[in-house]
Amino acid sequence: MSTLADTRLHSPNLLRHTPLATFLLIAFIAIPALASPYVIEAILLPFLALALAGVGLNLLTGYGGQVSLGSAAFMAVGAFAAYNIQLRLNLPLPLTILLSALTAATVGLIFGLPSLRLRGFYLAVSTLAAQFFVQWALTKFGWFSNYSPSGVISAPGMTLLGYSLDSTTARYLLALTLVTLLTLGVWAFTAGPLGNDLIAIRDNETAAQIIGVPVLKTKLVAFALSSAIIGVAGFLWAFTYLRTIEPAGFDLDRSFDVLFIIIIGGLATLRGAFLGAGLIVVFPLLLSRLSAMAFGGMIDSGVLELVQRIILGTLIIAFLIAEPNGLAAILTRVKRRFARNTL
Amino acid sequence: MSFLKRITTAALTVATLAAGQAAQADEQYFPLQSYRVGPYAAGGTGFFGGFIDYMTLINTRDGGVNGVKLVWDECETEYAVEKGVECYQRQKSHADIAAWNPLSVGIAYAMIDGVTADKAPLITVNHGRTDTTDGRVFPYVFPLLLNPYSETSGIVNYIASKEGGLESLKGKKIVVLYHGSPYGKETIPIYELLAEKYGFTVVQIEVPHPGNEQGAQWLQIRREAPDYVVLRGWGVMNPVALTTAQRNGFPVDHIIGNVWSNSEEDALPAGDAAIGYTAITTQASGNQYPVLQEIIRSVYTAGQGNLSDKSRIGSVYHNLGIVNGILNVEAIRIAQGKFGNRTLTGDEVRWGFEHLQLTPARVKELGAENLFHSINVTYDNHEGEGYVTFQQWDGKKWNVVSDWIAPDWALLRPIITKSSEAYAAEKGLPIRTSEDADKVTQ
Fold first, then answer.
1. How high is the ipTM of this complex?
2. Which CATH superfamily is domain B149-281+391-407 in?
3. pTM of structure
């Protein structure tokens, strides 16, 4: 696990780079002004939601070394909590989001308890329980979906200070703001003392305990915080992207998506979550559009879909062989080489 | 970030392509959000195969609808909501959209706001959100032929006809074995309502997804000793239910399948256990209908057929696709009658669907007599009073065993309007009148 620590050293530098400021400027101003609705609705909104889920899981798995297969469950908790809070309490939007994050944190805390005793694969299996339990409970008890006969709910509209946030641009800006703030929050957390405790536990739990790191507290804080962030990602997925909420949308496949995002992107880096989400969301779309342009109508669309999957799978394997630390490490290497050449 | 640039380039290329296509006049485009891979591929390939086959027939035989060529492309959804939404975003930039047909409740839900803003019809034949039947609240959504409540009523009416009338239902016991999913649970309140109204007992038992182990449920059914079991299944749950019923000694001819438990793919894997199994349908199976014969003659012999397995021609899903094709094409034809024989806007096609009235005589002209009965869509009834029939499995194929049966629409309507009016109030939507329905965006 020491290789992970190496990559971690680079991430706090993130803020010092001017590219980040330029990037945010583009994201907040240029994209809403220039991008087509397709780019925002079909690419950027799912990208932002999954990237945030990746940031949340990275906190737990990348920095904390606790493998979780229950990410989609916590996304579901966040989405359904936001729906019910808005339906029953009618609070202002920021408070709704905060409360749904707290709900996800509470559920995360409960399912994080086994982590005090279990490690590695055993913990991963116990988080599977969260995945199945949450989906089952949301389907079983009609109260969660306000007794909607089919169990699929349209997300209610969002307003902030009297303004409707239902337009494409408004939803994008809301998602972008939340993702930016939470990512900065996670960055501050991992750079702080609790973050160091977490990394110490990941690298050697026994040694950490001996030098006085509060293992129980740190693990539970990590579970709660990670679940809260993933809960907000679930809110984004349901309210800003799909605008419908159904338990089946948060199945095990979604959990795997989030896990793959951080593995491919790079564990224990913030950039990794974004790069991984980019690959998982954007790459299949590019591939599908390119192949539709090149072969559309000539080949059965089912065959085309399967071929794309093979290509995507092969590429992921190739990436991971070339750089086991993920896309973030590739990016760092490219940057270093670039810097050396310009000197 | 270079990938952003690449996306922009890709988007621009597509926009240019779409603009190029718009320049060609007199085409009507169908965006097909199909699914040919994944767990529901059997339904997807059959349905979209039939839909495409019918459109190909219209293009090759008639040169389009009154000279307007039908064009389409496919976007694979795998029945997953987020993929369907991406396809919707991708395909909606195309000009001349006639109607959307995603064949998925989840995708349809996610598109309701979008199609309403775009003013393009969204067709959910035989499924969908029940309260979209109320066209006063949902102007662009059409659960054509059969919504889940009508299906329930049709099944109960069929059981009544077998027992000798609705009065004979008194004191009977019916078990509903339903799939443990939102789809499966949708009709729970309606069965209870009908049980109360007609005086039968209903016991509803859930089978957890995916349903490949049903020992406990059938043990309970044995204890209950019902007169009928209604199978409200999906996928592998259906053949497993039939084989488990046989093992428990429950007579298969007293099991009635619902509209998603009625295909060859549901009965065939159960082997002998399925012989005598009866299921509801809006479109009979078989290839003896004139429209199917024409499709075989002019589409398949010319090598333009969409199904790769020709033995599936005339199967339940294929015929549903063909009926769906007829309904879409006739809506365009009816709208052309009012607006002219040219490419129509989505809102004009919506008007066509709201006047989609096909009498049994018209259905016969279309070569579909006995394939489906009739439809009578109005601005406030987007289901269109579809009739149902029942088919029995003989081990090789389905045979029609009933007349066309009408569900009890009058009984269901107040429940539907209660739900749609609540939706309108929650979303702050107006209730349309027939004058509103005649205002059409050109």
1. 0.77
2. Response regulator (3.40.50.2300)
3. 0.82
